[in-house]
Design brief:
The structure holds 3 protein chains of 3 kinds.
Chain A (H helix, E strand, L loop, with lengths): L14 H22 L32 H37 L1 H15 L3 H12 L3 H28 L2 H9 L3 H9 L4 H24 L11 H9 L6 H28 L1
Helix pairs in contact in A: 1-2, 1-10, 2-3, 2-5, 2-8, 2-10, 3-5, 4-5, 5-8, 8-9, 8-10, 9-10
Chain B lengths: L1 H27 L4 H6 L5 H11 L5 H14 L4 E6 L5 E3 H5 L3 H28 L3 H16 L2 H15 L15 H35 L2 H8 L4 H39 L4 H10 L3 H29 L1 H4 L2
Antiparallel strand pairs in B: 1-2
Helix pairs in contact in B: 1-13, 6-9, 6-11, 7-9, 8-9, 8-11, 9-11, 10-11, 11-13, 12-13
Chain C lengths: L1 E10 L2 E11 L4 E5 L6 H9 L6 E10 L2 E5 L6 H7 L4 E4 L3 H4 L6 H12 L5 H14 L5 H5 L8 H13 L5 E5 L7 H18 L2 E6 L2 H7 L2 E6 L2 E7 H6 L4 H9 L3 H10 L2 E2 L2 E2 L4 E13 L11 E13 L3 E5 L6 H8 L6 E7 L5 E3 L13 H15 L7 H14 L16 H13 L5 E5 L7 H18 L2 E6 L2 H7 L2 E6 L2 E7 H6 L4 H9 L1
Parallel strand pairs in C: 3-8, 3-9, 6-7, 7-8, 15-19, 15-20, 17-18, 18-19
Antiparallel strand pairs in C: 1-2, 1-4, 4-5, 9-10, 11-12, 13-14, 13-16, 20-21
The chains are: A mainly alpha, B mainly alpha, C alpha/beta.
């Protein structure tokens, strides 16, 4: 009898929503197209084409190896969005499970898990990801796992506090009196009621994941060259800020574009809520 | 007082947990550090000797206790990577020594910038009655929040360093040599850390004020004949600031994280760069101590914010 | 003299106050009575210049003596209002907790009145004047109140402080919007007495807004009844009560649960102190202690146990209604949760002779799962029942039919089946709550203030619905309420609780006519 997940209804399109939607769709389109086709090969180097300023041939210019920046931004956006999606899916799922159980049942397990999530939450997130990476080693897979671990506590917190709020609600008390079983109360009676709150935190989490992934790659502990990622492109570009400022601009603006588009989208949904 | 004691116990417990976690993460999981120090071509005797020297042959609990004991005594261990000379290993204390103040000052200046800029901005926003201004502030802060601090750092470097030449990128001035010059150089990195948080805090304050404006006591104040100004500054602002203090406390961790990343952009010799380089060279004793340091700072700030909150909010302190 | 002339107020073009005419003579108390949404609060807030900015006066004028405070088509004159607000007219609100600034000391908040409007006083004179006024409104420990924050005072004290604030400058008009609704009955009476006293002494005009006709009758000189934004009837209090002209007023008066009407009904049943005769027991409670753990469930909190209900013993018979009365905090809710096993921290015994006892809550807004449809909600008990007990398995079709049947039984139409609780009114939600509780035909139901959150006319309907189910299903109700009149009307027997103890139990008529305990007498007097 589980009903479809109810996303917030859009009663009226507002400007935030429209702008956010357009930005997000463009970003997704570039990223998806980038999976199959890019104007130039992302690793095609050419000594003759080093540091070309933006032109019709290379809309975002070329980098120190003569690679086309637009092509690399497309690939990089794909990588960033893909990683962030997996991170949010993993940490969100874990957050629901752990948050539901600890919030509803409470007790010593809850106490222990809360101490751990408090400690993790109080910790600079990127730092923790760095620690996990340094213990497990770098690479794309470990990056995803470490970021998922880092983001889980915030989801646990939100889900848990919602479950605590609702577990003593009158209608849940009545459900218990009717003899509804625990699993049914958790996932059929309570869970649908937290989706609107959860959805907001997923949107925020997604943005944070994008910022964290690009930050890690910028620091050289995430996606490593020659794979393109927005973060490591920025890190490369920084060295050529004097000669080729456009090199830094393109990947940087790409990050801002994706994050801003998504924030506006969620702001639009929130305002219509 | 009972509350204070409770908080201090929690503080100590958290530190204990973090130290155990750090110990397990860096001394148990990574496996054999001896090979990583000496390389694969060392003789078994030399390996055994080093293992004995580092105390790696002892059981984990004993190693933890002696490690914590050493740390409390101020002996932070030695780096696996750096050495003073051929025969003497580099103590972590010396490695960290002059780097910590750089990061702490960076974070402190960022916090000051946030407070100084966000509060007037938030109040102005909450008071603005025009729809256009409201929308502008909304989009403006959203955009500011979407810029990662390292990209902001690059923009600031390009604009103020290369185009306007207000400061010399890479021309870091040590605080031991010239303290005002040091603070001056930190201003732009701090600005890069602060801008997204200023936007965030201003939004938070504005929302908090709008919520408070709807409270019943505001209607009471108006019913007494208070002017808008008096209601705003005499009643609303103070109450709206309380959640903002908690919020500032909560983003301290992010400010520290932002500082660590931004050090990389501006070439600041703080603990952030040391941390990154230690992680990439797997220099675990250094990483471990840095993590403990940063945790301590963050938790201590939380603690202070919590106490501050109790002092200024009568609903809690008098309970 | 206050005069409201042909006033209409609209929000976004929708008129919520329509052509209202009211007059309050000097020294007169005018009661405005109406149910929620009748426009009574908007009228008062408009008079005070406090109505939200989206509201527009679309017709009429408001006079304070000869000055026009507001008139249609003129933007609100804030400067003019500020000259009147506080000094010449002041207001007391419903929720004294939220109406005071939580982070400022009470004394300072009252003193702000003087700072604003009596700037010639020195700081010391101001403080003295505040303390004096505190004493006048019955705050005996004036100095302590002066230095307290709102959360450190009781509800009654907070409301007295609000009243002190309102009358400290002897304003010509005091508006009181449901000033006693959030308070216990005994405190309610004291506040009413205080308002009357102030009116006598300061000779202010008062506008008293309430949903409770009885209260209006006790305090006001004249009454105006409002419905859907209009004044339907106004006049002298006694006239209105003795010979109401309008049908709506009549209904309001009839809906007020009164003792007189119950007389015949109570006689029909053969009730003694032990319950309806010749019926089997449905519930036995013996030496029940219920505990309340202090502090949060944390590692640090020492688990101090203190009983909130002590040594409760009583039985209930099949088909009877036992009314449980007492002031808030006396342990009514704790007792009922312990009986249902929701609170497990108990000593003593609770024996049920019925299966799956159910509960109906006070707040119809929180007792239905907002994410489900009405049809789903009505079917859920049946679904769960068939999951647990295969012999009671039903086909989807039968279950749906049963739910539709119950929907009709509680007086609602088919179209509501696929709606969600947020689309229903409070009364409708309470109907669904009742239907959901009764669809599996439990023998015993606890109803915790089931009508307290509802308007009087709706109250009567819900009580009638409960009674009809009771007769049909031979249900037993443990009926909890702070409203003695409601309990009188519903109950066969009455149980009185005070500070966690049952002080008196007996047949309704018996308890009302010959209360044995002083506390019961006091409760009855106040009601």
């Amino acid at each position: 009898m589980m009903r479809k997940v109810k996303l917030p209804k859009i009663q009226k399109w507002n400007k935030y929503f429209t702008a956010g939607l357009i930005m997000t769709v463009i970003a997704l389109l570039l990223a998806v197209v980038g999976l199959f086709w890019t104007p130039y090969g992302t690793t095609d180097m050419s000594a003759a084409e080093r540091f070309h300023a933006p032109s019709l041939m290379h809309p975002f210019g070329t980098d120190n190896f003569g690679r086309d920046i637009l092509s690399r931004v497309m690939k990089g956006m794909g990588t960033t969005i893909f990683i962030s999606t997996l991170v949010v899916a993993g940490s969100g799922g874990a957050g629901i499970l752990i948050g539901a159980l600890t919030g509803y049942f409470g007790g010593i397990l809850d106490e222990a898990i809360m101490r751990v999530t408090d400690a993790i939450n109080g910790f600079p997130s990127i730092l923790l990801a760095l620690v996990v990476i340094s213990v497990m080693g770098g690479g794309r897979q470990n990056l995803i796992i470490s970021l998922a671990i880092v983001f889980t506590p915030s989801f646990v917190r939100i889900v848990r506090s919602e479950f605590i709020r609702l577990r003593d609600a009158d209608y849940i008390m009545r459900a218990r009196l009717m003899g509804v079983g625990r699993a049914r109360i958790l996932f059929i009676h309570i869970l649908p009621n937290i989706f609107s709150t959860f959805w907001v935190s997923v949107m925020i989490g997604f943005n944070n994941a994008i910022l964290a992934e690009s930050g890690m790659s910028y620091l050289g502990v995430g996606v490593k060259p020659p794979d393109a990622s927005l973060g490591n492109m920025l890190s490369d570009a920084q060295g050529y800020l004097m000669t080729a400022p456009w090199y830094a601009l393109a990947p940087g603006l790409a990050i801002v574009w994706v994050v801003l588009g998504f924030s506006l989208l969620s702001e639009g949904i929130r305002r219509n809520g | 007082m009972k509350y204070l004691a409770k908080k201090i116990i929690t503080l100590i417990m958290t530190l204990f947990l973090v130290s155990v976690a750090a110990f397990v993460a860096f001394q148990i999981i990574p496996g054999d550090v001896v090979t990583s120090i000496l390389g694969t071509e060392a003789t078994p005797e030399r390996e055994e000797q080093l293992r004995e020297e580092l105390g790696l042959n002892d059981p984990p609990v004993k190693r933890y206790v002696s490690w914590v004991g050493d740390v409390l005594k101020g002996d932070l261990g030695v780096s696996y990577r750096y050495s003073k000379n051929m025969n003497e290993m580099m103590p972590v204390t010396e490695l960290i020594g002059d780097k910590l103040p750089v990061t702490l000052w960076l974070a402190a200046i960022a916090v000051i910038l946030i407070i100084v800029a966000a509060i007037p901005l938030g109040v102005f926003w909450a008071k603005s009655k025009s729809h256009a201004m409201d929308a502008f502030m909304g989009v403006f802060t959203q955009a500011a929040m979407a810029i990662p601090s390292f990209f902001l750092g690059i923009i600031v470097t390009y604009l103020f360093g290369i185009v306007f030449k207000v400061f010399a990128p890479g021309g870091y001035v040590s605080y031991q040599d010239n303290f005002p010059g040091f603070l001056g150089y930190l201003f732009f990195p701090a600005l890069s850390v602060a801008i997204p948080k200023i936007a965030m805090t201003a939004r938070f304050l504005r929302n908090s004020m709008l919520t408070e404006m709807k409270a019943d006591y505001v209607r009471t104040a108006y019913s007494k004949g208070c002017s808008d100004r008096r209601v705003m500054y005499g009643h609303v602002l103070r109450n709206a600031m309380m959640p903002v203090i908690t919020f500032l406390g909560m983003i301290i961790a992010e400010i520290v994280a932002g500082s660590i990343v931004v050090e990389q952009v501006f070439g600041l010799p703080g603990i952030g760069r040391l941390l990154i380089s230690s992680i990439s060279t797997r220099d675990f004793p250094v990483v471990e101590i840095l993590i403990l340091y940063i945790t301590f700072v963050v938790i201590f700030v939380y603690f202070l914010v919590d106490i501050l909150y109790r002092v200024i909010d009568p609903r809690i302190s008098n309970r | 003299m206050i005069k409201i002339e042909n006033l209409s107020v609209a929000f976004d073009g929708a008129e919520v106050v329509k052509n209202v005419n009211l007059e309050i003579a000097d020294g007169e108390i005018l009661g405005v009575v109406g149910e929620s949404g009748s426009g009574k609060s908007v009228t008062a807030l408009t008079l005070m210049g406090l109505v939200s900015k989206e509201a527009a006066v679309t017709s009429g004028r408001i006079f304070y003596d000869d000055v026009v405070l507001a008139s249609a088509g003129r933007p609100r004159d804030m400067a003019l209002y500020r000259a009147y607000q506080g000094s010449r007219m002041s207001m007391v609100f419903q929720e004294p907790m939220t109406s005071l600034n939580p982070t400022k000391r009470v004394g300072g908040q009252v003193e702000e009145m003087l700072r604003l409007h009596a700037s010639d006083l020195t700081g010391e004179q101001r403080k003295e004047r505040v303390l004096e006024t505190f004493l006048k409104v019955g705050l005996k420990d004036a100095k302590r109140v002066y230095d307290s924050y709102p959360h450190q005072l009781s509800g009654g004290m907070r409301q007295r402080a609000m009243i002190a604030m309102a009358v400290i400058l002897h304003p010509g008009l005091v508006v009181a919007d449901e000033p006693t609704t959030a308070l216990d009955v005994s405190v309610q009476n004291q506040i009413i007495a205080l308002l009357r006293e102030i009116n006598k002494e300061q000779k202010n005009s008062m506008l008293f807004i309430t949903h409770d006709l009885n209260l209006a009758r006790r305090l006001c000189h004249r009454v105006a009844v409002m419905k859907d934004g209009r004044v339907v009837e106004s006049g002298n209090v006694e006239e209105i009560f003795e010979s109401p002209k309008e049908a709506y007023t009549k209904r309001l008066i009839e809906a007020v649960p009164s003792r007189i009407k119950k007389e015949e009904k109570a006689k029909q049943r053969n009730v003694t102190a032990e319950g309806v005769k010749a019926e089997e027991n449905i519930l036995e409670v013996k030496d029940l202690n219920v505990f309340y753990k202090e502090g949060s469930n944390s590692l640090f909190s020492g688990k101090k146990k203190k009983p909130v209900v002590s040594e409760a013993s009583f039985i209930m018979k099949r088909g009877e209604t036992l009314g449980l009365v007492g002031e808030s905090g006396c342990g009514k809710t704790s007792l009922s949760k312990a009986i249902l096993g929701i609170n497990k921290d108990i000593e003593g015994s609770v024996i049920h002779y019925s299966t799956r006892p159910q509960m109906i809550f006070q707040d119809p807004y929180s007792s239905l799962n907002p994410s489900k449809t009405i049809g789903w909600l009505l079917q859920e008990p049946l679904r769960v029942q068939s999951l647990a007990d295969k012999t009671k398995a039903m086909t989807d079709k039968d279950r749906e039919a049963a739910a539709y049947d119950m929907l009709h039984r509680v007086g609602m139409e088919d179209k509501y089946f696929y709606r969600r609780p947020s689309q229903l009114s409070g009364g409708q939600r309470q109907r669904i709550s009742i239907g959901q509780a009764l669809i599996t035909r439990p023998g015993f139901v606890i109803a915790d203030e089931p009508v307290s959150a509802l308007d009087v006319t709706i109250q009567a309907q819900i009580m009638e619905l409960m009674r009809s189910f009771q007769e049909e299903m031979k249900l037993s109700f443990l009926f909890i309420s702070h409203d003695i009149n409601v309990v009188y009307q519903m109950s066969d027997r009455i149980m009185v609780m005070k500070e966690g103890r049952i002080v008196e139990i007996g047949a309704t008529k018996e308890v009302f006519d010959n209360p044995k305990e002083e506390y019961t007498r006091q409760l009855l007097r106040e009601a």
